[in-house]
Amino acid sequence: MADIPISHILFVSTALFFIGMYGLFTRRNMITMLMSIELILNSVNINFVVFNKYLYPDRLDGIFFTIFIITIAAAEAAVAIAIIINLYRSHRSIDVESAEEMKY
Amino acid sequence: MTASQIIFYILAAFILGTAILSVTTTKIFRSAIWLLFSLIGIAGLYFWLEVEFIAAVQIVVYVGGIVVLIIFSIFLTQQSGKEMLKPSMMRSIASILAVLFGFAFTYFLIYKNDFQAGDKPFDWSVNKIGTQMLETGENGYALPFEVVSILLLAAMVGCIVIAIKSKPEENNG
To answer: DSSP for B99-142?
Structure first.
């Protein structure tokens, strides 16, 4: 695995991050926006693990950050889905446009 | 080209292809399934990087937990098989341009940067991770561990409070 330069792996994580950004820009459905956020968090996890393994192999901080990010992502997804289901009960729709009365 | 390189490029193409399909398909259930494949590909990338512990956590938490949660919420809130609205042409062109410029700038910075690879061997083990996680010394992660456990408790209570029905007579919703 040492025969792959680090920039190729960072290419994958960067591309994954911006694919997630594209989904966040174009989707109007809250569940699909949540999926895009999961893609973005995963690209960050890849980055942490790769930097840990290639640049600072005598430490373990990247692995710890990855574990904490996965934990927080699980909590975030659970809370977001609770909010989405609650919104669906009151508005019969989970598009972000249908929730815009919350601004006022 | 060695087998390791070939496996890496196949994994990379798989992850990116399924991720693109996940954000572009118009059926929401298919989008969730493509996301599932993308997350499995990322777990495969962790196996390729020889951090099997993170790969196992990825499969257990993401593939087994979050995607199942998302699929359940799709069943609760969507008519299955209904197509989502396509984004308007103007919005998708603007998004593609923004994303491509962002990607080009970011990857240019990465490409120009000279990474100094560490020369020591990478030795992680679950034993080492567990010891350092609960250590209170200089490199210990005991405080974030406790904070995260409180956060999980708060998220759990918060989910129940948000999703509970406020009045029992509104039960027809």
So the answer is: HHHHHHHHHHHHHHS------S-----HHHHHHHHT--STT--H
